[in-house]
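Please fill in the sequence for the structure shown.

STRUCTURE ENCODING:
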């Protein structure tokens, strides 16, 4: 992993429009972002929307806004979190476009009955729909703003990337117990926020 100085240098070059810096960011995240987009563009949306197009659009938005000085990103983890949020919002935008009144996917006739997922297949699909993903990403952004301690923000970032409490504690040099306590507090807050949308 790059040091803070080299990451800051990369972000500075990227802000100046350096192609090599853009390629470094693109190469590092594209595969994972396409996988994330695929998860959130399932079912009938998968026929209409190419996940790679969504990721390209996410990069375009990021590069333009970064060049405009809209982001202050301190680490690769922070950049991954930002790219995740942008990609999920792009997925939600595409879903909203195809679900709008004139283009409702559920009005379209599927040519083959075999291409329609069975009810049990839909029931076991636990991934959130794009609208839910956007609500979650906004809740996470709100959480980041309420955490003033940089260590707590780092714990949240690493947890969102799938690291266990033990791994987070090793990476940050924090007691595993304090990591677990913070993660539990975050989980309860997210549950409370999600219930407020019901």
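FILLED IN BY: designer on duty
SEQUENCE:
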């Amino acid at each position: 992993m790059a040091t803070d100085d080299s990451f800051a240098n990369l972000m500075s070059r990227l802000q100046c429009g350096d192609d090599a810096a853009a390629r470094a960011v693109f190469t590092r995240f594209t595969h994972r972002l396409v996988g994330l987009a695929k998860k959130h563009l399932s079912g009938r949306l998968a026929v209409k929307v190419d996940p790679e197009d969504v990721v390209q659009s996410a990069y375009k938005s990021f590069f333009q806004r970064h060049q405009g000085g809209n982001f202050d990103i301190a680490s690769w983890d922070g950049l991954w979190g930002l790219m995740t949020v942008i990609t999920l919002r792009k997925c939600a935008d595409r879903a909203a476009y195809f679900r709008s009144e004139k283009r409702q996917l559920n009005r379209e006739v599927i040519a083959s009955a075999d291409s329609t997922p069975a009810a049990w297949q839909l029931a076991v699909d636990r991934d959130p729909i794009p609208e839910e993903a956007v609500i979650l990403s906004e809740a996470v952004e709100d959480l980041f703003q309420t955490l003033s301690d940089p260590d707590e923000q780092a714990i949240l970032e690493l947890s969102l990337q799938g690291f266990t409490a033990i791994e987070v504690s090793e990476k940050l040099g924090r007691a595993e117990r304090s990591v677990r306590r913070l993660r539990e507090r975050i989980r309860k807050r997210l549950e409370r926020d999600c219930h407020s949308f019901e």
